[in-house]
Each structure stands twice: as C-alpha cells, then as structure tokens.
Design a protein that fits this description.
alpha/beta; Growth Hormone, Chain: A; Rossmann fold; eight-stranded mixed sheet
C-alpha cells in the first residue's frame, strides 16, 4: 500500500488531490449516434414540416367541424365549444405522449404511414359514431357534450397528434441544431392549426356539409398514410405496405357502411344550423322549423294568423296594445327571423305595417321562403348578417316596435342581451315605442332576471310574461323555467290588459311588473354588459 493512498476493492483514491480541469469543451456525441441511422430511415426536414402542418391542420378542421356535428343533439353554445375544445386538447396531450414513446420504441418512419391512415379512418368514423350516439337520449347537458365529443373525436385527435413527436424523432440528426429543428416543426404545426381553423370556420362550413368536410379530411389522411407506407416499404423489418393496405381497405369499407347506415339529422346545413322542416301530423298545412335540436318556429301555410307557440301569442298581445294606442300603420324591427312566422302574421293582420327583419343565416331565410310560406313582398325588408352590426346601420327613431327573437340553440346570443345592445335598440325606437323579447331559461330564471335588470336600466317600465308554472322554482318548487317574454317601454304598460289579451288567446299567464314585484323578482341578478354576459352559464343554473 502506498502511503497517503486508500485502496478499496480496486478503487484508488488520493485524498486532497483534485484532477486538473480539462479545458476542452464537453461534447455530447449524440450526433454521431444519430448518424448511424440509415438515411432511408430518416425524414428530410421539408417533408417533416409538411407532415406536421397537415396533422395539426386536420385536428383543427375536426375541432371546428365537431361543433356542427354535435349541434343537432346538444345545440351550439359556449358550453358546447368548451366541451369540444377540452376533449380535443386531451386527445392532443395523449397523442403527443404516446407518439413520442412509440417513436422511440418502434422507429418513427415506419409508424407515420399507419398513423395517418388510422387518423383518417377514425376521423371518418366520427360521423356515424356521433350520429348513432346522439340518438341514444343523452340529453343536452355538460355530460352529453363531453360524451359525444369524446366518443367522436378523441381517437382521431390522439392519433394525429402522435405525428408531431414522430416527425421530430425521425428528423433530428444533430443535437447541435435540434433546437432550431424542433422550433421549425412546431411552427409548421401551429401554422397548420391556424390554417385549419380559418379555412373551416370562414369558408368550408359555409360552403360544404359538415359530413362532407370530415369525410374529405379523412380521405386525404388515408391517402397520405398509404403514400408514406409505400415510400417507407422495407425500411423496417416486416413493414411492407401489404398489411397496412389491407387494413385500410377493410377500415374504409366499415366506415363507409356505418356512415350510410347512420341516421341523418339534417335536411340541409348552413354555417350555423342543422335545418329541418317537419310536417305537422295533425294539421296538414302546419310546418315546424327545426334548428339543431330546437323547435324554432311554426308556420301554417294556409293561415298566417295561426300562432302555434305561446310566446308568439304573447308577442301578438303586446303589439296589439301598441296598435290600439297608435294605429296599425306600424314600422316593426325583428331581431331574428327564423321561420319568419311572426312578421308574416303581422303583415297579414295589419296590412299597413312595414317590417325590417335582421336574420343571420341566408339558408334559414331561403328555407322560410321556399317551405314556410314567407314572401317579403313590398312590406318587408330582410337584412342578412349578424343583428348587432346591422342594427348600428339603422336610423334613429325608425320603429314603433322591436321584436327580439334571435337564438343560438337555447340561448339568446350574449351580445344581443347587454346594456350596450339595449341602448342601440332604444336608439332606433320612436318615443313611446316598445321592445318585446323572447327568452328561454332554466327553473331559477337566472338569465331572465338578469335581462330584466339590464332592460330596467334603460327603460322606465319592464314587464315579465310567462306561464304561472315558470315561476315555481323561485317560490320553493322544483320545476319552472321555459319560454318567457319581456316587454320594455318608456311608457306605462297596462299589465292587466296584457294578461287579459293573452287569456283571450288561450293562454293563462302571469305578468310581473312594477314595484315592489319586479324588484323582488330581479333580486340580486347581475347586470349584463359587453364585458360580462354569461348567458349560457346563467341558463345552466
């Protein structure tokens, strides 16, 4: 043993001596290891960027289209899109994790072709899956939204999101430049996602049926998958194109058969709605307009004065009071056309009246003209587009009556409920004019109470009309809600006469107005403004 040196089991230590530092830079030789991968089993950075773009593009096409595919069963609302976005993000996270592990274990190049093919097949399968699952009576709540989005879209989102780590793994050959490479591929994927979002939302949904968009996207992905499989044939043991091709053909046959056999909830689609017109089995001339899952309007082709829905009769009672006070020579603004049954009725009941109708959806307007008996003639002007910017272009003091009947699914679009919107409505109303608004709410009437408070900040007089049972939950019951009409004016509202008119039309209603009843009804409801208008959440309560 040498003095000063400890030797233990072949380990030698010299105390109080440190090795001299090596001034040469520490080099990770990972690059040389990566270069041992044959070139034919790697991807060029240009092809990798294209594949990352296409995969992310397709995920966002499916995410935007999912809202329309689910709409006939759960409606279109903030809640719907929140559920879809959450599910898709979960699929993206799962796919990124699984794709990275699979790429390390099995080799990325051989996996890319099957991954694209499976992503395409599962994308196409989302159509029959949602169509079948949507008919199972899941309801329209949060659980139904998440379940439908999950069974329909989590598999394609997961599969396609596995592409990103695969192309990174297949492209890196030099650790010294890996940061730039990963950044470039990440940017390509992000640009693909942006492109898929804009193209689908701004162009495709207004041009093609949702199912066509999804099936076309799936077909593109399958073809890319087959091309990649053929390109990479023989680069990994046992990875020839034969098994993948056979599997894809079987998958296409299965998906095609399921798509043809699945129920189709729409007669036609627009950028906003799944549209159907249903014949009334009892009244031969009756037609119901279905927008998504909502019975939106009813029109009697033979009798425009037949008002099937109760809230339309309450509208009519409120307008009749204006006619009694001012005469039938009215200018009426309709915020929302739908089936155009109310402007059609007013034009028939008061031939001297004139109507301006703000309708978002041109396909809904054409459906009303072609199938619901609406003819604008010379007394009605239809302005297509979102109601709020359209309202800004209308002159002051132009209307005796404004009718609010615009809906997206079960809720009034939030931007049509705020104090800023109410100010614009008041601007176009003539002195002493009247605003009548239809709402749908849950048992607690949280949205109705908030809208009543919002209207009361602008109008001196506000009245709430509903069936007596609609108020039950506020008085200790377990049920309530439904359609509610609010009437607002700067002049007093004869609520007794209003209730009498609805009773003569066959409806027993309750009218809440004046102090202290209205203040008690409103309670601590929030004020709705452009910065805070949680309409969907209020209805959900």
């Amino acid at each position: 043993m040498v003095p000063g040196r400890l030797e233990l089991a072949g380990v030698t230590s010299v105390p109080n001596r440190r090795p001299l530092p090596d001034k040469r830079p520490l080099v990770c030789d990972h690059a040389s290891t990566m270069r041992t991968v044959p070139p034919e089993r790697r991807l060029g950075s240009e092809l990798a960027a294209i594949l990352a773009f296409i995969a992310a593009f397709s995920v966002l096409v499916l995410e935007i289209a999912a809202g329309r595919l689910l709409a006939p069963y759960v409606g279109v609302s903030l809640t719907t899109y929140t559920g879809i976005i959450g599910v898709i993000l979960g699929g993206i996270a799962l796919g990124a994790w699984a794709g990275g592990k699979a790429a390390d274990r099995y080799g990325p190049v051989a996996l890319l072709g099957p991954t694209f093919a499976v992503g395409g097949l599962t994308a196409m399968a989302s159509v029959p899956i949602v169509d079948v699952a949507g008919t199972l009576g899941l309801g329209t709540g949060l659980e139904a939204i998440v379940v439908l989005a999950t069974v329909g879209f989590v598999l394609p989102a997961t599969t396609l999101s596995a592409v990103a780590p695969m192309v990174v793994r297949a492209t890196i050959v030099d650790v010294a430049t890996s940061g730039a490479l990963v950044g470039r591929l990440s940017a390509a994927g992000t640009v693909g996602a942006i492109s898929g979002t804009f193209l689908t939302g701004f162009v495709l949904l207004g041009t093609l049926p949702t199912r066509t968009i999804i099936l076309a996207t799936g077909t593109m992905l399958v073809l890319i998958g087959l091309g990649l499989t053929w390109r990479g044939r023989g680069t990994e043991p046992g990875t020839g194109p034969g098994p993948t091709l056979v599997g894809v053909v079987i998958g296409l046959l299965a998906v095609g058969t399921a798509t043809l056999a699945a129920p189709k909830p729409c007669e036609r689609e627009s950028a906003y709605y799944c549209i159907r017109v249903v014949e009334d089995p009892v009244r031969a001339s009756g037609r119901t307009l279905m927008l998504d899952q909502l019975r939106h309007s009813y029109a009697d082709l033979a009798d425009p004065n037949h008002l099937e829905f109760g809230y339309i009769r309450w509208f009519d009672a409120a307008v009749a009071q204006v006619v009694a006070a001012r005469g039938a020579d009215l200018d009426v603004l309709h915020v929302g056309g739908g089936g155009f049954s109310f402007p059609r009725h007013l034009a028939a009941a008061y031939p001297a009246s004139r109507h301006t109708i703000l309708e978002l959806d041109p396909i809904v307007y054409q459906t009303a003209r072609n199938e619901l008996g609406f003819d604008p003639g010379t007394t009605a002007t239809v302005i297509l587009g979102d109601a709020r910017p359209s309202l800004l272009r209308l002159p002051e003091d132009a209307f005796e009556v404004v009718v609010g009947d615009a809906f997206g699914s079960l809720s009034v679009p939030w931007h049509l409920t705020t104090v800023e919107m109410i100010a614009e409505l008041d601007r176009v109303l003539r002195p002493g004019g009247r605003y009548v608004m239809n709402l749908i709410d849950g048992p607690d009437l949280s949205f109705v109470r908030a809208e009543a408070r919002t209207l009361a900040t602008r109008f001196e007089h506000v009245a709430v009309i509903a069936r007596p049972g609609s108020f039950a939950a506020l008085e200790g019951g377990s049920t309530g809600g439904g359609n509610v009409v609010i009437v607002a004016s700067h002049e007093p509202i004869d609520t007794a006469d209003l209730a009498a008119r609805t009773a003569r039309a066959g409806d027993r209603t309750r009218v809440v107005a004046g102090e202290p009843d209205l203040a008690r009804f409103i309670g601590d409801a929030p004020l709705l403004n452009d910065d805070y208008a949680p309409v969907d959440q209020l209805i959900g309560r």
